[in-house]
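In this supplementary section we document a worked example of the pipeline. Step one takes a protein sequence of length 472 as its only input; no multiple sequence alignment statistics are reported here. Step two produces a three-dimensional model, which step three serialises into structure tokens for compact storage. The input and output of this example are shown verbatim.
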Amino acid sequence: MTAVRMRGGSQLRGRPWLTLVGGVLGGAMVGLDGTAITIAAPFISSSVDATLGDLELIANAYLVALAIGLLPAGKLADRIGRRRTFVIGVALFGLASLGVALSGGVAALVAFRVLQGFAGALLQPAALAMLRNAFPADKLGLPLGIWGGANALAIGLGPVLSGLVVQGFGWQAVFLLNVPVAVLTVALAFFAVVESKGDEGTGRGGLRRLLRDRSVTLGAALVGVSSVGVFALLFLLTLYLQNVRGMSPIEAGAWMLAPTCVVVVSAPIGGMLAQRFGPRWPVVAGLVLVAAGLVGMTTLDRGSVFTDLLAPGLLAGFGTGLCVIAATEAIMGGTPDELGGIASGLQQVASQLGGVLGIAVVGGVMSWRVSDALGRHSTEAGLPGPVAETVRAGTDAVTQGKIPDGFEPGTVGARLANAVSAVAKLSFVDAMGVAFLVIAAVSLLGAIAGVLIPKTAAPEPADDTPEPALTP
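The serialised model returned by step three reads:
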């Protein structure tokens, strides 16, 4: 095993590339579970009799806990050790995933999702710190690129992989898979990673220093705006594809590849553009593309085909990659080395809070607009008064793209069942279009704010004169 003396004189040992593998596995669990819930949501709803509000709570419990825990977890890792914090986080994530899979009700699901979120918060900042310690400064670019690309790929492929697992083995299997991955990751951490701790004294004062920088605050806010768009898009598309269109999880996941996997391509482009021209215009252009893609999504209806979703999905996904990386460059570009961990935590917090806000906003818009649309479409369909009242009482089911209970063909006859189904699906699609327009407006407001990002210069290169490698 080799050891490298890094700047500051600390001697660091380990197996760097296996450290990277362990960090990628840990990050992949967090990323996959962030998007897997969107595919599993309809099945969870049927399994535990969850309402739309319950599904939002189950999804947001994880994201909120993750966002709340990121900054404190980064400070904890510096204090007690990065590897120790990472191992605790991975182990807790595996145990919480087992708890989610065994849950039989909404309350238990929410509780274990909260534990998952806190566990993810422990492992994410610690994993990045482990990478920084495992590789010499002049060789850190490639592993960080692999780390970021792998996380984006995990998020992008999450719906498809989750669809395969859910369809073949049930929604519980999505979470059970985390258990063996967690065991492997912990083993890799003990085998490959050398313990390290951070410098003292960068706590609250460091965060205040960062937040006084306009580039940092705007960058973090616009990372959040970008997450509002992508989480809202995935949440609505999942309900539309599976409940309104009746697709299997695998089909739904395949349809959502356009807005997710294209991020893997656009993210490096966003980084190069930000490095060449500064972060301002890539952020603005990215959010404009996101807004354009969301507006394009308003054309979806009950009979849309894949090509109807492809172009707007590609626009939204490509714009997300441009914006997120350029906004991250705005955060990190002028951040001093000693505050890099806190800045990274700030970026992740903004991303998670944006996801929570996006799901909450579209949930509220859907509840508001579906109630109005049901009355209008019931009248247009000529539903009898008592039937129309019963349909309107099933608003919560319709906000998920479902038909209100009691209108199955075997219960009310095929003709009435088909009429109610048409009313419910038309109402959902109408409300979804309004929700997409609201999120598009948020993205455009973000693009306007992006113009205010300073044209920051790249940070001055540190003195990375290599010192002799030490081989014990």
